[in-house]
Amino acid sequence: MDWITLTVRTTTEGAEAVSAMFMDLGIMGALIEDKADVAVNQRPTGFWDILGDELAERMEDDVKVTAYIPADERAQDTAAHVREGLARLRGMELGFDAGKLTLEVSSMDDEDWAENWKSQYKPFRLGETFVVKPTWERWEARPGDRIIEIDPGMAFGSGTHETTGLCVALLEENVKPGMNVIDVGTGTGILAIAAAKMGAARVLATDLDPMATRVAAENIALNGLSDVIAVKTGDLLETVDDAADVMVANIIADVICMMAAPARRFIVPGGLFICSGIARERRDEVVGALNAAGYLDLDIREKGEWAAIAARCPA
């Protein structure tokens, strides 16, 4: 199997936060390269003298946290989800300097993965009625098909990840014609587009990553929905003015826990907060945060190692 390397440049203090983000995304076993670990006063006794000083001298000043993922059809989503997670870390008050928080993506065989992954990305069904079709593929639509044209670029949300399917299923059940919808962490805009095709009158798609909002705007235009979906770059609290009937956030557990209470300001009484990107082992933690924030009637769905939750605001 071919593998993709995801390397984040950070600091000694930031390495733990980056590793935790990887774990939230289901990426285990990150390798941390930190020059401070081989400082003279921290070197292990024994065989170090055999290695000499050259190893420490070759190590870079940035701390590097590296993870490996299979080079399959989900790699694009995973890498872009990491990029979105880093954008969120950059916007948080961490209490320490986390450094650059930049992501470097490469394949272990030096092939052009950014292009090669497209050969594995084919049209597929999502939820009950949607078909996600990359722009470079053909599809013979059947009666009732809702086609989403998409070019993922380097943003998260090509639709192949289980969390996207969970969110789309909940949108299909709960978005009614004329509703207002907010998509937080829109990535490629796929959930915003799905909501608009369900009949939403207005959709706001937000993301911290300017690359994501650029890609989302392009995909929204491809689907002829620029008059329905507005795209904004920035944090939820900074970009939203009105309350929505449905808010959807396919992000990560830590962010959902933090935003659960403040998000209620942007959801109408009786409205719905759909959240996903939740690793199964973090589900109960998110449920606790939603309960503490006063949400009711939690509808929990699971697929593979992931969970999604639809939570109702009190009327």
Shape: globular
Portion of residues within helices: 25-40%
Write the element-wise H/E pattern from the N-terminal end onward. Answer: EHEHHEHEHEEEHEHEHEHEHEHEE
How many runs of DSSP E, i.e. beta strands? 14
Number of helices: 11
Question: What is the distance, rounded to the nearest whole angstrom, between the alpha carbons of the first and last residues?
Answer: 51 Å
Question: Which CATH class of the largest domain applies here?
Answer: Alpha Beta
Query: Architecture of the largest domain in CATH?
Result: 3-Layer(aba) Sandwich
Low-confidence stretches: 38-59
Tell me about the biggest sheet?
Answer: 7 strands, mixed
Strand content: 25-35%
- Backbone CA Rg: 21 Å
Which structural class matches the secondary elements?
A: alpha/beta
Spatial ordering of strands, largest sheet: 10-9-8-11-12-14-13
Instruction: Briefly note the CATH topology name of the largest domain.
Output: Rossmann fold
How would you describe the overall organization of this protein?
This protein folds into two domains: 3-117, Alpha-Beta Plaits; 141-312, Vaccinia Virus protein VP39 (Rossmann fold, 3-Layer(aba) Sandwich), CATH 3.40.50.150. Helix content is 32%, strand content 28%. The protein contains eleven helices and 14 strands. It has helices at residues 12-24, 48-51, 54-58, 75-91, 113-116, 162-174, 190-197, 210-222, 236-239, 253-263, 283-292, and strands at 3-10, 31-33, 63-70, 102-107, 124-126, 130-134, 146-150, 180-184, 202-207, 229-233, 244-250, 267-279, 296-303, 306-312. The strands form three sheets. A seven-stranded mixed sheet has the order 10-9-8-11-12-14-13, with helices on both faces. Strand 11, helix 10 and strand 12 (267-279) form a beta-alpha-beta unit. The longest helix has 17 residues, at 75-91. The termini are far apart.
